[in-house]
Write a structure and sequence with these properties.
The structure is a single chain. The protein has 299 residues and is α/β, with parallel strands linked by helices. The protein has two domains: 95 residues, Alpha-Beta Plaits, CATH 3.30.70.260; 189 residues, Vaccinia Virus protein VP39 (Rossmann fold). It is 29% helix and 31% strand. It contains ten helices and 15 strands. A seven-stranded mixed β-sheet has the order 11-10-9-12-13-15-14, with helices on both faces. It has a five-stranded antiparallel β-sheet with strand order 3-2-4-1-5, covered by helices on one side. Strands 6-7-8 form a three-stranded mixed β-sheet. Helix 4 links the parallel strand 7 and strand 8. Helix 1 runs antiparallel to helix 2. The N terminus is likely disordered. The structure holds S-adenosylmethionine (SAM). S-adenosylmethionine (SAM) binds next to helix 5 and helix 6.
């Protein structure tokens, strides 16, 4: 069956992160333009900071352009992922594209640009732009939340060429990937949520930085080597709990960027990192604050 409509949404309900990744891989091979994970009745595009449930079963939906050979796709899924499917198919006309187009894309932070995958081929890239392309729906971190935006602004301000970067609480991997696109040599992306790790690895592959990134659960983060830049966008209480670990990961001349802090909470957070690290800069956006800390006095 060849379908003539403009856009098709193909969906499958699957169980387990491995199966999810296999379905995504088949969808991508058949030309998916956007992939979205959700639970029935729940939108995971941008959950609250710190909240990223991994449900037992998830729906993986993908958007395909006209001309998709649906029968071949269904056969590939049946053959490669036994026990899954069959996929459901629904025509969506321009609805999904229009919904994405309503979002303010691309997001810009200095020479950094953040684009949802669906828009990536449609937007020409200017010479110096460092572009990060993200799959909507995979992990917290689309760039639209003020706490993420503060981190992206900070990354765009810093000279990252050749630097080692730790992104702790990586979600979609947006910060680690942005750092690599801005010239960092290596990045380590850490999250305690398996779904975030999947999303970060997937986005790293999409952005062709997989060979320069390690995506890890917290237990697998080694004490050495130290990082030139550590960035963490998590809630204030977690940043306080993580103070010993994040401080110990930072090279003596390194910088620590903390975000996810509500205005009014910053003194408490900064206190947890003193006296080893002191405040270098503070930035605020829509009631959210980011702090930049470094060792010793002054710059
Ligand atoms: C607000 S999101 C930030 C995502 C992305 N870095 C960004 O800036 O948009 C926080 C992330 O930290 C993770 N997280 C929360 N507490 C954590 C902890 N104690 N250890 C590791 N990851 C944690 C969550 O799973 C979530 O993916």
């Amino acid at each position: 069956m060849r379908v003539a409509e403009d856009w098709l949404q193909i969906s499958l309900v699957v169980e387990g992160a491995d199966t999810m990744a296999m379905v995504e891989a088949v969808f991508e091979r058949f030309g998916a333009q956007a992939i979205c994970l959700d639970e029935p009745g729940e939108d995971l595009f941008e959950p609250l900071p710190g909240a990223m449930p991994l449900a037992a079963s998830m729906r993986v939906s993908a958007l395909f352009p006209a001309g998709l050979d649906f029968d071949s796709l269904a056969r590939a899924i049946a053959k490669e992922i036994p026990g899954v499917g069959p996929p459901s198919v629904e025509t969506v006309g321009e609805g999904w594209r229009a919904a994405l187009a309503e979002r303010p894309v691309p997001l810009r932070f200095g020479r950094l640009e953040i684009l949802p995958a669906l828009e990536a081929t449609a937007v020409p890239r200017a010479g110096e732009t460092a572009r990060v392309v993200l799959t909507p729906g995979l992990g917290f971190g689309s760039g639209r939340h003020p706490s993420t935006a503060l981190c992206l602004e900070a990354l765009a301000r810093h000279r990252l060429e050749g630097k080692r970067v730790l992104d702790y609480g990586c979600g979609s991997g947006i910060l680690a990937i942005a750092a690599l696109k801005l010239g960092a040599a290596r990045a380590v992306a850490v999250d305690h949520d398996p779904q975030a790790l999947l999303a970060a690895a997937d986005n790293a592959r999409r952005n062709r930085v997989k060979s320069r990134i390690s995506v890890l659960s917290p237990e697998r983060l080694r004490a050495r080597p130290l990082f030139d830049l550590v960035i963490a966008n998590i809630l204030a209480g977690t940043l306080i709990d993580l103070a010993p670990r994040l401080s110990a990961s930072l090279a003596p001349s390194g910088r620590l960027i903390l975000s996810g802090i509500l205005a009014g909470q910053e003194e408490e957070v900064a206190r947890a990192y003193a006296p080893a690290l002191s405040l270098r800069a503070r930035h605020e956006r829509d009631g959210w604050v980011s702090l930049e800390l470094g060792a010793g006095m002054g710059r």
